[in-house]
Amino acid sequence: MQKIGVIFDLDGVIVDTAKYHFLAWKSLADELGFQFTETHNELLKGVSRVKSLEILLEIGNVTLSEREKQKILKSKNEHYLSYITKMGQEEILPGVTELLDTLDNLKIDYVLGSASKNAALILKQVNLLDRFKAIVDGNSVSRAKPDPEVFLIGAQKLQLSPENCVVFEDAIAGVEAANTANMISVGIGDKNTLSEADYNFNDLTELPSQFFQSLLVEN
Ligand code: BG6
Ligand code: MG
What we know:
The structure is a single chain. 44% of the residues lie in helices and 11% in strands. It has helices spanning 18-32, 38-42, 49-60, 66-84, 96-106, 119-125, 149-158, 172-180, 211-218, and strands at 5-8, 110-113, 135-136, 165-169, 184-188, 199-201. The chain has two domains: 5-16 and 90-218, Rossmann fold (3-Layer(aba) Sandwich); 18-84, DNA polymerase, domain 1 (Orthogonal Bundle). It is an alpha/beta fold. Strand 2 (110-113), helix 6 and strand 3 form a beta-alpha-beta unit. A six-stranded parallel beta sheet has the order 3-2-1-4-5-6. Helix 1 (18-32) packs across helix 4. 6-O-phosphono-beta-D-glucopyranose binds next to helix 3. 6-O-phosphono-beta-D-glucopyranose binds at residues 10-11, 21, 44-49, 52, 77, 114-118, 138, 171.
């Protein structure tokens, strides 16, 4: 029987931090004098902090100097952290804890593969940090999703070849990264948005109980 491993995205799969990113980006847009909606916020999912700012400025048709951008990135993150540092275990998304328990029972290793530079802090806040075999995050990569770098490093940490890795993702860029890496992609969220994924579920509670066993047989 082949061995498989799992790579989890963080934001939108383990915890719903998109709402905090939204509040922080929106207050910046307010200061800069343009509208930033929840629909706009969708464009920032899975995207690095720097790229998110570029998209935000494009939406507002605002041009800033490099120095101003750095200042804004710093203050956006400080605002975001004011929400993150109040997070607790109750913010873990439905099905996550049960899924990690299942993986532990099946002796399937799992690592994190996130674009966030705050990933370790967030996992610590919700008391999940120690459960992961390794954390690959925005501090470990030079190329952001949809580049597969974050997941390929994840596969190295799992000591598995990419085709034996299962990636859980809620963002289009993340599903693309997993597919490019030649991994098994599982889209969590809207099936139409994540239509490129190999498997789709609305949330982790929908995962069939024998999901990993069936993958092991197919592998
Ligand atoms: C991703 C989020 O996980 O992390 C993006 O989906 C976010 O919305 C990115 O921009 C970077 O996060 P951070 O915490 O480094 O600002
Ligand atoms: Mg995500």
